[in-house]
Design goal:
Length: about 130
C-alpha cells in the first residue's frame, strides 16, 4: 500500500481549509488523510486539476451534488438547487483557488508547481 507523505499532503489541506473558509464561510474539519478508492457515485461532482513541475500529479476534489450546490450558492450569492454550467464554473474556480494557494505554499518550501485548467466530472466514475 502506498504511504501518505504529510509534507506533500499538508499544503493541499491547508489551502483547501483556507479557501473554503474565505469563499464559502465553511470551517472544514480535517480527519486523518488516507488513500481513497477512486470510485465516485452518481451523486458526486468531481473537479480534476493536474499539476506539473517539480512534482507531478492529479488532484480530485469531490463533493456530493447537494454540497456542491451549497458551495456554488455561497460563491454566487444566489440559491442553486441543481448544478448547471455557471454553477459548475464556480466550483471549478474554487478548485483553481485551492490549487493556486497550494502552489503558493509549495513555493515557500522551494517546490515549484504549475496547475492545469480544471475539468469537472459528474456521475459514476472509476479510475485505475
Amino acid at each position: 500500500m502506498t504511504s501518505v507523505n504529510v509534507e506533500h499532503i499538508n499544503p493541499f489541506l491547508m489551502a483547501s481549509t483556507k479557501i473554503l473558509k474565505e469563499m464559502c464561510f465553511v470551517d472544514a474539519k480535517l480527519g486523518r488523510p488516507y488513500i481513497k478508492d477512486p470510485v465516485f457515485l452518481d451523486n458526486t461532482l468531481v473537479i480534476f486539476i493536474g499539476f506539473t513541475g517539480e512534482m507531478k500529479g492529479q488532484v480530485m476534489i469531490a463533493f456530493e451534488n447537494k454540497i456542491a450546490c451549497d458551495i456554488a450558492s455561497k460563491m454566487m450569492m444566489t440559491p442553486i438547487v441543481e448544478m448547471d454550467d455557471i454553477s459548475r464554473s464556480a466550483i471549478c474556480e474554487l478548485g483553481n483557488m485551492i490549487m493556486g494557494n497550494t502552489a503558493t505554499i509549495f513555493s515557500t518550501k522551494g517546490i515549484a508547481i504549475d496547475i492545469t485548467p480544471p475539468t469537472v466530472g459528474n456521475g459514476t466514475m472509476s479510475f485505475t
